[in-house]
Amino acid sequence: MAVIKTIHHCLACPFKQNLFTKLSVEELKQVNDAKLEITYNEGEIIFKQGSFITHIVAVTSGLAKVYLEGISKRNLIMQYIKPAEFIGGPGTFVDKIHHFSVIASEETTACLIPVELFKKLIETNQQFALGYIELISRKRISSFERFISLTQKQMYGRVADALLYLHNDVYANSQEGFPLNRKDLADLTA
To answer: Which residues on adjacent β-strands are paired with residue 104?
Structure first.
């Protein structure tokens, strides 16, 4: 079961996403006062595809898996979220619905920031807004590259891409191997 606790203050958080460095001290205090810091156990759902968007999720420890729920329980893992990354989603500004699910791949702590506060920061802080646009643009480019890999490569190429992604991006600083089961590999490679 998820546990709500306060571990980090936003002003001194070592896992603050670079985007949040564009906020003033007063804006960071607003975020700190409004956020919930929750620790999820491995396998717990952080949010589900089709549910309402109420918060932006900033991961501060652990690892979370972002996936699209498909037909007949066939999912497609889009990416893994590490500390100092956050998850919003395209529905934040369109229909207020999550268009993917996120689950904790291991014990994961995340700060949940109310979406209305996040939108207010975008409206009032130009540097924050530009940083957010840059961030979502990079994620969009990454998604395009991922779709090319999934649609234009044979299975061996998709598996190689998945292993390189895990090695270079997800577990880059790890001296140990990374835990990967067959289902996750299948969901990552379509």
So the answer is: 64
The CA distance from 131 to 120, in Å, is 15
Q: What's the pTM value of the predicted model, to 2 decimals?
A: 0.81
Position 124 pLDDT exceeds 70: yes
176: left (phi over 0), alpha (psi -120 to 50) or beta: beta
**Tokens of residue 159, six digits:** 């598996």
Q: What is the pLDDT of residue 9?
A: 76
Nearest to 169 by CA among 79, 101, 88: 79
Residue 61 and residue 83: Cα distance in Å, rounded? Answer: 5
Pair 45, 91: CB distance under 8 Å: no
Helices (H), the chain: 25-34, 115-124, 126-152, 155-165, 182-189
Q: Helix, strand or coil for residue 166? A: helix
